[in-house]
Amino acid sequence: MKYVIIGNGTAAVGAIEGIRTVDKEGSIALVSAEPYPVYGRPLISYLLQGKTTEEKMLAYRPADFYETNGVETHLGRTATAVDPAAKTVTLDDGTVLPYDKLCLCTGSRPFVPPMEGLDQVQNKTSFMTLDDAKKLSQLLGDDKSKRVLIIGAGLIGLKCAEGIIDRAGSILVIDMAPRILPNVMLEHPGAVIQRHMEQKGVSFRLSDSVAKFTSPTHAVLQSGEEVDFDVLVVAVGVRPNTGLAEMAGCAVNRGILLDDHMQTTAPDIYAAGDCTVSHDISCDTDRILAILPNAYMQGETAGMNMAGGNRAFDKAIPMNASGFLGLHMITAGSYDGDQYLDETEDGYKLLVTSGDHLVGFILLGDVERAGIYTSLIRERTPLSSIDFDLIREKPQLMAFSYTERAKKLGGAHAW
After folding, report:
1. Is pTM, for the whole model, over 0.85?
2. pLDDT on residue 404
3. 273 near 264, Cβ under 8 Å?
């Protein structure tokens, strides 16, 4: 059996490991436009802070990961064509890779909205990859007086601000939305994070956007405010990379459409990760869930099934775990339902229930044992079957029945 995987992120790692749980002998070829072995992408802000190194980032898997798993790598190469009839993938250097099963783990790319005069801005970058982090570090240099303009107050923009807080003279974050983290957070906890970051020196302009750049270092906002900057970071958002899937005849609706075995609508072609559409069980909606846990689980599921297994993954939920200048945050699921709020000077806890199920939560500050809440959502655990009053106050295994405790302590998969 010949397997080809396009991409080299979390979903691709899951696919490799999924294949090898079923098929120890088949050949695996992996194609990645980035020249690096798989690395911990969320760590790029910590690289800028000096809290990690490139070597540690590349230790997401052991140095011999590809060799141990019998993977032939084509790093720094781009897949330019997929021919589903001939069952081949063509690379930018002319290499043709035949496949029996193909997995598209093509991820996403930065979205850069049209902005007048953007082309004249030389000192600019996005903030998604290791190369982006290296470029931003080079642009900042050792001069800690540079003014940085970040367009986008989502997770990417805020993590960028965190990464350079001690390396810039000023940081201004602009977003069209009326609040930060508009796709992740409700208004009030978002305001808590914003105040925390403002106290650390980050400035925000919300409900505003760049109307035009009038010089390489000068922007005029829609509100009329004028902003001078030395470095520009565009972190507005991402778009799934679906071009190869469309070329191969896979159905696409913003992202690649899949069944619960991670198979596309094209024979022998699977997909996983940020390029795909998932079914969010917390709100019974199909949507793109560009988050690491789902990417790995999708990839592992795809790999197993490519190798002849029979695994379904039908427990996708949105989930984000992050920190912003010392303030920890974990969110998961949907916020539509009955809300239980516990807010103190040091923390914020919102639990959302619908019927007999926990469907979402937001934790700021104390995020310990958030995994119990996440498991309740993924497993659709009836709240009537546990001591939810106890879990609501303090998540702990004693709130579960003996049988459920045994499962969890025994290491049974949470999905």
Report:
1. yes
2. 55
3. no
